[in-house]
Design a protein that fits this description.
Its EC number is 1.1.1.127. This protein is an alpha/beta fold. The chain has a single domain, classed as NAD(P)-binding Rossmann-like Domain (Rossmann fold, 3-Layer(aba) Sandwich), CATH 3.40.50.720. It is built from eight helices and seven strands. Helix 4 links the parallel strand 4 and strand 5. The two termini are 32 Å apart.
């Protein structure tokens, strides 16, 4: 359907070299977008780009350390220089620290909240500035979390950051709506990725996770592709400040 056709559009995907970001980038490419993956690992990015191209997609990458000052404006300039335009931002980069709250250090807090929340805002701001300067529409897609809605032990900085992302998305959606900029959030459930590998390796915790999922399976990263394509496409032009839960029914139960 042409509503979901992304041909001619350029999507910047952070964290696109692995895990959920890689799967969503592949989905955007399958819908016709030129995806530009951004990250620090040349090896991961090259492999992800090669996989997308092998499926007939258009992909390239830029090397960037999103924790550095000024990197957010620069990566937008780099994408425009490489691909000619920027229509979609999908911020999927992230990290995790699993500790009891009493043991969290200031460095732990800063590293987790910086990549999930501070970077989300600065990338969105840079994307919006570019779109407004070009008098063009843009789609901004954040990746939230179950922790935006319910509490889990041992991940206080992550939960705080993802809860902040939920509020940020609503605020930016309201503020930038008249500029033709849509801001929406994907809420994944439990997926087997590097961020969850240590948790799911614990048999007791794995059983508990499975007991909470009505569909009785972990998510496959490809399960997120449809939500990403929807939020990036014309099909969502009148949707902003919204969430799509891709969690196997966890929050519904």
């Amino acid at each position: 359907m042409t509503l979901f056709d992304l041909k001619g559009r350029v999507a910047l995907v952070t964290g696109g070299g692995r895990g959920l970001g890689e799967a969503m980038a592949a989905g955007l490419a399958q819908a016709g977008a030129h995806v530009v993956l951004a990250g620090r690992s040349t090896h991961e990015l090259e492999a992800a780009v090669a996989a997308i191209r092998a499926q007939g997609g258009i992909a390239s990458y830029v090397i960037v350390d999103l924790m550095q000052d000024g990197a957010h404006e620069q990566v937008v300039r780099d994408v425009v220089a490489k691909a000619g335009r920027l229509d979609v931002l999908l911020h999927a980069a992230g990290m995790q620290v699993r500790k009891n709250a009493i043991d969290i250090t200031a460095d732990d807090w800063d590293r987790v909240t910086d990549i999930h929340l501070r970077t989300a805002f600065l990338l969105a701001q840079a994307t919006a500035r570019h779109a407004m300067a070009e008098q063009a529409a843009a789609k901004i897609i954040f990746v939230g979390s179950l922790t935006s809605h319910i509490g889990f032990r041992g991940i206080a900085p992550y939960a705080a950051a993802k809860s902040g992302v939920a509020g940020l998305a609503r605020t930016l959606a309201a503020e930038w709506a008249t500029s033709g900029i849509n801001v929406n959030t994907i809420i994944p459930g439990y997926f087997h990725t590097k961020l969850t590998g240590d948790l799911l390796a614990d048999e007791e915790k794995h059983r508990w996770v499975m007991s909470r999922i009505p569909m009785n399976r972990l998510g496959d990263p490809q399960d997120l592709a449809g939500a990403a394509v929807f939020f990036a496409s014309t099909a969502s032009d009148y949707v902003t400040g919204a969430e799509i839960r891709v969690d196997g029914g966890w929050l519904a139960s």
